[in-house]
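Changelog note: in this version the structure field was regenerated for every chain. One regenerated record is shown below for reference.
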Amino acid sequence: MDGMNIQDKAPGVVLSLTGRVALVTGGSRGIGAATVRLFRQAGARVAFSYRVAEEQALALQAEMGGPSVCYAIRQELASAGDGDALVAAAAEHFGRLDCMIANHGIWPPHDAPVGSMTDTQWRGTLSVNLDSVFGLVRAAVAQMQRQTVSPGQSRGHIVLVSSTAGQRGEAFHADYAASKGALISMTKGLSTELAGEGIYVNCVAPGWVRTEMSGATLDDPATAGKVFGAIPLGRVATPDEIAGPILFLCTPWAGFVSGEIFNVNGGAVLVG
């Protein structure tokens, strides 16, 4: 017995990242912005990237305490080199990097049969959704390996955001499905490679989430019925419902979780 009376303990369970530094890509809107807010609430200092939504990015930076604790970085993410540059900027600003969340991505909303999909679309989707993630992971791992950590503390956490499409495919969106499926395979391979060094690599696989990117599809009667009908819970997720599992995977409560594909899709992956 440690002598502590149960009444002396704070109620609830604490998910704390105090003293840790996180990088969230695509952090100005949607899932990314929800993740930035939640990581700041958990005590982390957070850098996040944006591409064009400068007004939203700067507003979020100010809302979360300013650049000393929440730092917005304008960065294109369409190549491995772009990923390297973003990690370097975040690490230079905060002095270290403990968590890297690859959340950005594109989903061309128009149907593109594979027989007529252009090289430009295929290459563009994979450049953003896969090539830049490789650069982010490469640079983040190198940074984590250089850092000193306290005894018993993890060296770092990497969370890749995939999709149900990466597991069951998506007709007329072969480019998107291929890129997200590659992130799942990357998660498994990286976990095998890095777990022994104390670098945890996991994946969160959302289904449909109401964001600016998905709004037009979800509000279109011609497509909404099909979307909602394929989700056993009968609704789409909120960004906060994806940010929560991302945060969990970066805390000590997930200290025995590595290489996991964490499905957050209302059961949709089971029935698609």
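Spot check on this record: The chain has one domain: 17-270. Residues 1-7 have pLDDT under 50 and may be disordered.
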